[in-house]
Amino acid sequence: MPFPKTRLRRMRATETHRRMVRETTLSVDDLIYPIFTVHGRNIRHEINSMPGVFQLSIDQIIIEVKELQGIGIPAVILFGIPAHKDEKGTEAYSDHGIVQQAARAIKDSAPGLLVITDVCLCEYTSHGHCGVVKDGHVLNDPTLELLAKEAVSHVKAGADIVAPSDMMDGRVFAIRDALDREGFEQIPILSYAAKYASGLYGPFRDAAEAAPQFGDRKSYQMDPANSREAMREIALDIEEGADIVMVKPAIPYLDIIYRIKERWDIPVAAYNVSGEYAMVKAAGRFGWIDERRVMMETLTAIKRAGADLILTYFAKDAAKMLLEGR
Ligand code: PBG
Ligand code: ZN
Question: What is the pLDDT of residues 153-201, one digit of tens each?
């Protein structure tokens, strides 16, 4: 029945009407908060390009995770800034590495909070690439062994979930195999499965001090123009044993999230990355947009597209708004 009998505005009349027919509800259960950890004590170093996000020493992380638990956030993802970088990213798989220490400390002080660790080499290598470099090339197969070692070392330190972000072929299988051989068959893998070579990682590279020292990451991260290739990445990671697959960045790639959700029943995560955060923060600071409103709209849109989980620097702010019932 067309207009004038049908009027879609009827169910938009008041907030109560709207609340009753709302199709997507963001929940604190969906949110994962990224944390950057550094060696030292009493360090709370704010990232220039990411207002409200800090490099934290472990004593500060302990304070932070209690706050996160208090507002109901279920999980954090840890990134480490090592004391020393070298060609092979040794601190990534050292049992005394910064992420390993932070994971232990979090599990001691907030045992119910899940610790996810980012498994990659770029934060730890002197050249800043996500894999082993030889003659200017990022080598795939020699990297797998190091990533597997890193994942095992994270789990030994208390990590509940490991999240490989390197984009080497075959890493999910290599990590699954290594974890199983060590008796960690219960530890899930959250795979950065469709990770694009994006300009939106700029602020993260300031935060993690992990910009590539030569070239770019286009020989291993995906071309932003491709979506069928993303389906192949997802299919392979599921076959290799991924428990959750991730799309990254989120907002420019909502079509990818949607396509995955249509085709597979596996949980889907989306990474609302540093550049997406910085753009909203900057425009908000200029007074050009309403930051909180755009934040909630963005997170709701990511969920509407099909994401079950959202990794976001907005997690704390969004959780507080949800608690206040706004
Ligand atoms: C490491 C990694 C990156 C991000 C997460 N893990 C950077 C990169 O691949 O260059 C980006 C996260 C963000 O921008 O918020 N491989
Ligand atoms: Zn990396």
Answer: 999 999 999 999 999 999 999 999 999 999 999 999 999 999 999 999 9
Q: Is 122 in the pocket of ligand 1 (CB under 6 A)?
A: yes
CA distances, 290 to each of 203, 272, 283, 295, 302 (Å) = 21, 18, 8, 9, 18
Ordered by start, the domain boundaries in the chain are 23-324
Phi/psi region, residue 118 (left: phi>0; alpha: psi -120 to 50; beta: rest), is beta
**Cα separations (Å) of 260 from 160, 229, 241, 244, 273?**
25, 12, 16, 12, 19
> pLDDT for 231-260, tens place per residue?
999 999 999 999 999 999 999 999 999 999
Q: Among all chains, which residue has been given the structure tokens 């490991």?
A: 162
pTM of the model: 0.98
Distance 167 CA to ligand 2 centre (A): 8
Please give the backbone phi and psi of residue 38, each rounded to the nearest 5 degrees, phi first: -125, 160
Residue of the CA atom closest to atom 7 of ligand 1: 201
- Residue 325 pLDDT: 85
User: Tokens 């491709």 map to which residue?
Assistant: 226
For the chain, residues with pLDDT lower than 50 are none
* CA 40 to ligand 2 centroid distance, Å: 23
Burial letters for 49-85: b for 16+ Cβ neighbours within 10 Å, e otherwise?
Answer: bbeebbbbbbebbbebbeebbebebbbbbbbbbbeeb
User: How would CATH label the architecture of 23-324?
Assistant: Alpha-Beta Barrel (3.20)
Q: Whose CA is nearest to atom 5 of ligand 1?
A: 165
Burial (0-12, 13-18, 19+ Cβ within 10 Å), 205: middle
